[in-house]
Amino acid sequence: MTQLRWMTAGESHGPSLTVIIDGVVAGLPLRAEDINAQLARRQKGYGRGGRMKIESDTVSIESGVRDGHTLGSPIALRIVNRDHENWIGRMGAAPFDAPPEPVTLPRPGHADLAGVQKYDRRDARDILERASARETAARTAAGAVARVLLAQCGIEVCSRVRAIGSVRDEQDVSVDELFSSRTRLEESSLRVLSESAEARMRDEILARSHAGDTAGGVIEVVARNVMVGLGSHVHWDRRLDGQIAQAMMSVQAIKAVSIGDGIAAASRPGSEVHDPIGHSGAPPEFTRSSNFAGGIEGGMSNGQPIVVFAFMKPIATLRRALLSAHLDSKEPAPAAHERSDVCAVPAAGVVLEAMLCLTLASALLEKFGGDSLRELSRNVASYLQQLRDY
Ligand SMILES: Cc1cc2nc3c(=O)[nH]c(=O)nc-3n(C[C@H](O)[C@H](O)[C@H](O)COP(=O)(O)O)c2cc1C
User: Fold this and answer.
1) Ligand 1, CB within 6 Å, residue ranges
2) Which residue's CA lies nearest to atom 9 of ligand 1?
3) What is the CATH number of the domain that holds 84?
4) Strand, helix or coil for residue 372
5) What is the C-alpha separation between 66 and 61, in angstroms, rounded?
6) 61 in Cβ contact with 20 (< 8 Å)
7) What is the domain extent for residue 195?
8) Structural domains counted in the chain
9) Cis omega before residue 284 (within 30°)?
10) DSSP secondary structure string for all residues of 335-351
């Protein structure tokens, strides 16, 4: 049973995006600024297209919050699409006076073709408007609420870009060093730790852009101070690793997810992959000399930082378009080109953070329950005492 329920609505060039989040405890301090700060982070990054210059996302809290605190009722958030004013007559609910030019050359790598066939549409715009990653602004807003909830229990989430195209940031740092580097990451144009890797990544993006091409990459997302025991081994759908993988894979263009060293571990001997258990004699008592497992064993958090790698495919809208087939004539022609990012890996990192926050907040509420922040905090404190007494 999912404790935190949420659902987004809205088209890319429609009037606005909406998200309703249900299950957040009452009494949580929550301000629009908490959400706007995350929305601003999602909009940055070298390689973004013209849309992000038009939008300057800010949230309107429509329900569920009073006097700076949650009420326990559904929280409705709305983000206006500023670009909508350029789409009046093409993106309204009322029947069109004059039908706009339809999109009839589906773009490979997008929802366009499967969508028009499945939903029996003749204009791929009917599909691409909702499939667009503009929707991730609403997820980011929901994730910001989850982040505030997690912070009350000491849990923090951050991310870094590990690779763009063929360029990797090889600089390894501890989890605490990573969290201490957040200012550097926010100042970086690509949310990358190593300055030399960042320069090479920018060159790669520029080269791909000049060639009419695009870039994908790898993002590392980390949560620290996650207590032992979120998720469970007893049912497939209660496994925290499964829930995280689903959440990450649901982000547009994410094509693979690795928990800890998951992908690399497949080729290594077990003796080099599993994390030996020790005991320190002081809280947190049980210790690990490594964290190849990425903080999850048997579908449960094990008290180590949760480390997730997400792999993003290159942006599918290409200026040097791939071949497509016309929906009506079926004749070959280059795919449609909408204004588009060349690389959105840094923005995807912020969205992935939001998805990890939502997944962990849901698991936290499932384990500890409570209708108010006081009740939740009491339940968490009592469990942490139980762990210390173990
Ligand atoms: C933050 C973010 C921004 C994106 N921006 C674009 C874009 O400008 N143009 C584009 O073609 N794809 C963009 N994408 C990727 C597409 O949304 C994605 O490739 C498409 O939905 C198909 O991927 P899927 O098969 O995983 O759904 C973006 C993805 C994310 C996460």
Assistant:
1) 49, 109-111, 131-133, 136, 251-253, 315-317, 340-341, 344, 347-348, 351
2) 340
3) 3.60.150.10
4) strand
5) 10
6) no
7) 5-389
8) 1
9) yes
10) PP--S--S--HHHHHHH
Per-residue pLDDT of the chain (390 residues; tens, 9 = 90+): 458 999 999 999 999 999 999 999 999 999 999 999 999 999 988 878 766 667 689 999 999 999 999 999 999 999 999 999 999 989 999 999 999 999 999 999 999 999 999 999 999 999 999 999 999 999 999 999 999 999 999 999 999 999 999 999 999 999 999 999 999 999 999 999 999 999 999 999 999 999 999 999 999 999 999 999 999 999 999 999 999 999 999 999 999 999 999 898 999 999 999 999 999 877 668 999 999 999 999 999 999 999 999 999 999 999 999 999 999 999 999 998 877 889 999 999 999 999 999 999 999 999 999 999 999 999 999 999 999 888
Q: How far apart are CA 357 and CA 339, in angstroms?
A: 30
Cα 159 to middle of ligand 1, angstroms: 19
Q: Burial, 136: exposed, middle or buried (Cβ in 10 Å; 0-12, 13-18, 19+)?
A: buried
Closest by Cα among 28, 44, 244 to 147: 28
Residue-wise burial string across 269-301, b where 16 or more C-beta atoms lie within 10 A, e elsewhere: eeeebebeeeeeeeeeeeebeebbbbbbbebbb
Q: Sign (positive/negative) of CA torsion 316, 319, 320, 326?
A: positive
Candidate from 118, 311, 341, 342 with most ligand 1 atoms within 8 A of CB, to mutate: 341
Burial class (CB in 10 A: 0-12, 13-18, 19+), 87: middle
Question: For atom 11 of ligand 1, which residue has the closest CA?
Answer: 317
Q: Closest Cα to residue 143, out of 350, 346, 347, 294?
A: 350
| Token pair for 103 | 């999109």
